[in-house]
Specification:
The chain has about 450 residues and is α+β, with helices and mostly antiparallel strands. The chain has 2 domains: about 325 residues, FAD/NAD(P)-binding domain (3-Layer(bba) Sandwich), CATH 3.50.50; about 100 residues, no CATH class. It is built from 12 helices and 19 strands. Strands 1, 2, 3, 4, 7, 8, 9, 10 and 19 form a 9-stranded mixed β-sheet that branches. The chain has a 4-stranded antiparallel β-sheet with strand order 13-14-12-15, with helices on one face. A two-stranded antiparallel ribbon has the order 5-6. Helix 1 crosses helix 11, helix 3 packs antiparallel against helix 11 and helix 11 packs across helix 12. The longest helix has 25 residues. It is globular, with a radius of gyration of 22 Å. The chain binds flavin-adenine dinucleotide. Flavin-adenine dinucleotide binds next to helix 1, strand 8 and helix 11. The site of flavin-adenine dinucleotide has 36 residues, from helix 1, strand 8 and helix 11.
């Protein structure tokens, strides 16, 4: 959006006076792992920062994902360090009914957690550090003062439309909403535009886990036999739902269910999201009914809670200054000149298009590949940068590198780079990456540069 004027603390847009409510160095749109990492890092590096989040709580998938295990933070069997490790340490020490760490052969250490605990912990965290946060606020547009340069954003909330001005804008919306608004190029989904299935996560209580878990892990992994039996009875869950990702919950007698899969949903389209939410909620109850009727130990099961919104695995990915290919991941490519994050993880193609494939490869957890700085910088824009799962990469590379722990690490690099750009006035693509690496290591990140 370019046709606006400034006048006495307002942005004048289409004859409407929109009050400017904040002006500073860095504004971060989206309070998921990518946005939190960026906002925390930028503020700690001395910048003035504002974090804007559409939801009523912080955490993104860490909060609305029903306790989706926090993963990815231990490539090469050692921590990525920094803010991610600081937050994971809090989760690790939270206590047995709030979180526990489990080593998953394919994924490394996963931090199962109670999402209610996470939302509360992160609320305390941002209050303690005095971070300026605005919840219940949707970022709806970008104020461009030239084709490549933005000077702020427009937000909508109970207060009406408001403007926020900043030197650098971090798009951590999970969908690159702001890059798209600003005219930056992006890709979406695979070569056909197909994205992975979406999931409403839920937790089931009232389960005799001593009965269910041995049955599930040894006798009938994926509940394949039970599903066949239910099908023969003309019942059972959707063909698309996946029962390979049921885990013992962090609460006693409970299960964590990452099993609903709704195909063909586009996370950047409200009608499509609506369809996903409605079908997803129906599936949650279908699955509960199936468990109650067929699964040993689940006779008295009930829904303890559901994720407050569905989880979108992938949508837009920017066309960036650099790129992470699938081959880069397979080759464990190192990029000492530009690394901002180390990464390991299997590929996953769950319910994308007509795909039946789930996890695609075993991965050597003792090794890693590097994520280079340029993947977060949109090619067409000077001072908008992405943090989170929208960075520039192949759609399969993303599935290996999008874990929530990792996205906090990526956020730390983005927030630190944003401060450098805000201070120097340089375009994001031109910041001194060696200096960025130095600052990240000074702040406890392990970039693998010292062996
Ligand atoms: C079903 C599912 C299973 C997964 N399994 C795992 C797993 O087991 N382990 C793991 O570590 N990772 C897992 N992931 C991946 C991980 O959750 C994501 O890659 C990660 O959360 C991406 O972080 P993000 O910050 O980019 O986006 P998000 O976590 O989606 O956060 C984006 C935030 O931006 C806000 N927002 C969006 N648009 C706007 C706007 N216009 N204005 C204001 N705010 C906005 C949203 O409300 C949200 O809070 C899974 C993801 C899904 C969907």
């Amino acid at each position: 959006m370019k046709d606006f004027k400034t006048d006495a603390g307002n942005i004048i847009l289409n004859n409407e006076a929109i009050p400017v409510i904040w002006e500073g160095d860095v504004v971060v749109a989206g309070g998921g792992p990518g946005g939190l990492g960026a906002a925390i890092a930028a503020q700690r590096r001395g910048a003035s920062v504002m974090l804007v989040e559409a939801n009523a709580f912080l955490g993104g998938m860490m909060g609305y994902g029903g306790g989706m295990p926090l993963g990815g933070a231990y490539p090469g069997l050692r921590t990525i360090g920094g803010i991610a490790e600081e937050i994971l340490t809090k989760v690790r020490n939270a206590g047995p009914d709030k979180a526990d760490v489990r080593h998953m052969p394919l994924f490394g250490d996963w931090y199962f957690h109670d999402a209610e605990y996470f939302k509360s912990m992160i609320a305390q965290f941002v209050l303690d550090m005095g971070l300026k946060v605005r919840l219940h606020t949707w970022v709806s547009d970008v104020l461009m003062d030239s084709q490549r340069h933005a000077c702020g954003i427009i937000v909508d909330s109970k207060n009406g439309r408001e403007a926020i001005l900043a030197k650098v804008i971090v798009d951590a919306t999970g969908d690159a909403d702001l890059v798209a608004k600003a005219g930056g190029r992006f890709e979406k989904g695979d070569d056909n535009g197909d994205m992975m299935g979406v999931t409403i996560v839920f937790n089931v209580g009232g389960v005799d886990t001593d009965k269910f878990m041995p049955y599930y892990t040894t006798e009938d992994p994926g509940l394949v036999k039970l599903i066949e039996k239910a099908k023969a009875d003309g019942r059972g869950p959707s063909e698309d739902d996946k029962f390979t990702s049921i885990h013992k919950g962090v609460k006693p007698n409970s299960l964590f269910m990452n099993s609903v899969r709704v195909r063909g949903i586009d996370g950047t389209d409200a009608d499509s999201l609506t369809r996903g939410e409605l079908l997803g909620r129906i599936r949650v109850f279908q699955e509960l009914t199936f468990l109650r009727e067929y699964a040993p130990g689940c006779e008295n099961a009930y829904i303890m809670n559901t994720g407050s919104q569905l989880g979108v695995r992938d949508s837009r990915r920017i066309v960036g200054e650099d790129y992470l290919s699938m081959q880069d991941c397979l080759d464990l490519r190192k990029r000492p000149e530009s690394v901002i994050l180390r990464c390991t993880g299997p590929f996953d193609n769950t319910t994308r298009g007509n795909s039946k494939v789930y996890v695609l490869n075993d991965i050597d957890m003792s090794a890693w590949y590097d994520i280079p700085y340029g993947v977060v910088v949109p090619k067409d824009l000077d001072n908008i940068v992405v943090s989170g799962r929208t960075f520039s990469c192949h759609y399969m590379a993303l599935t290996s590198s999008r874990g929530q722990g990792l996205m906090m690490g990526l956020g730390q690099a983005v927030g630190t780079a944003a401060v450098m750009a805000a201070r120097s006035g340089a375009a994001m693509k031109d910041i001194d990456v060696k200096e960025l690496q130095r600052q990240l290591m000074e702040d406890g990140c392990d970039l693998g540069l010292n062996g």
